[in-house]
Amino acid sequence: MTSSLHYFKNKGLRTLLTATAIAVLLQTAAAPVAGIASAAPAAETKVTTASSSAIYKSFQNMLNKKNGLPAADRYLESKISQVTPYHATLMIMQLENARIKALTAMTDRMLVPNVQDQMLKIYKWNNSFTQLMARTKDNTLRNLLQQARDSGYRLTMIEGSLYPIMNYAAFDKYTSYVNKDIKQYIRIMAVETSDISTEDGGLMIGYQEMLNRALNQEQFLNDYPKSNRKKQIQMLLNEYTYYTFYGLDNTPLFDYDTTVMDANAQKGYKAVLQRNASKDSAFLKKLNAFMDVVADSNYEQSEAVENWLEQNMPRSEFWN
Questions:
Q1: DSSP count for the chain of H helices, then E strands
Q2: What is residue 8's predicted lDDT score, i.e. its pLDDT?
Q3: Which residue stretches of the chain have pLDDT < 70?
Q4: Helix or strand or coil: residue 32?
Q5: Which of 150, 182, 242, 279 gets the highest tally of CB atoms within 10 A of its CB?
Q6: Residue 155: HSE in the Cβ half-sphere, 13 Å Cα cutoff
Q7: Cβ 300 vs Cβ 260: under 8 Å
Q8: pTM for the complete prediction?
Q9: Going by C-beta distance under 8 Å and a sequence separation of 6 or more, which residues neighbour residue 316?
């Protein structure tokens, strides 16, 4: 059975690559300043509100122009040390929004059969846009690849096709200027887009990595309960929590035939619980209680395990 939580993993790769990103855009489109705490500029930087506002307005004008992402990014990089943390944070989120909004159109351009064929002929595993640019002799393709790179995307192959996805590592150059919650948000999203967790209904990372990501997401929500990006991190945590307690269609937690819990999951869950025994975490408390029930059932998907999940982690909790 395919859950509503991760149905997009199996119903089209475009949705896989942009589902969380679209939610980010919707969250901030109507009220872009909500949830941004004011912060004082660094002591060594003399910034006035007026000069910061002027830079902010110029950035917005550049960002709103057609194909303005690369120029807006370059402008922001040159000016970000001259604005307040408030404006820096706001501009970073607006840059993220703009990149998300433009991603669908860029994806359409790259999925054109002729473009895909050209790219696949010169592509080598884990290549970047820059590497493909150096290898192609087609100027039109090179310009497309450069625009994708400079617009803030990275190249990835999923199920035999090449896609642009958000490159959150490209925001790293800005993290020392923004508020702490957005700095941590960028770090979390960079991990997600640098090493995709699921593909085609299967888990692509290790069980300990999966749990560690969930713990980082939980910590973000605890540290920044009023963050503008709270909703996006909560969505991620919901996904990872579901993977933890139910598995995925092609990486089931309990074997479909034997109903025995995956051996690597057993080892990974125990290791993370032991390593974080002193950590105050609601997620880990649930996991520890779950593993106690599973152990009592000889690590089989018994009626007791099913009852515990229904009472403590009902599927309906993730589908709403």
A1: 14, 6
A2: 33
A3: 1-45, 319-320
A4: coil
A5: 182
A6: 26
A7: yes
A8: 0.86
A9: none
Letter for the amino acid at 15?
T
- Residue 319 has what pLDDT? 65
Q: Which two tokens stand for residue 200?
A: 């085609």
Tokens of 12: 């089209």
Across 9-167, the runs of DSSP E, i.e. the strands, are 153-158, 161-166
What is the four-CA torsion angle of 52, 58, 64, 68, rounded to 10 degrees?
-110
Q: For 157, list phi and psi in degrees, rounded to 5.
A: -110, 130
Residue-wise pLDDT for 164-213, tens only, equals 999 999 999 999 999 999 999 999 999 999 999 998 899 999 999 999 99
43: helix, coil or strand? coil
Amino acid (1-letter code) at residue 141: L
Two tokens, residue 259: 């109903």
Identify the burial level of 311 via C-beta atoms within 10 angstroms of its C-beta, where 0-12 means exposed, 13-18 middle and 19 or more buried: exposed
For residue 138, how many other CB atoms are within 10 A of its CB?
13
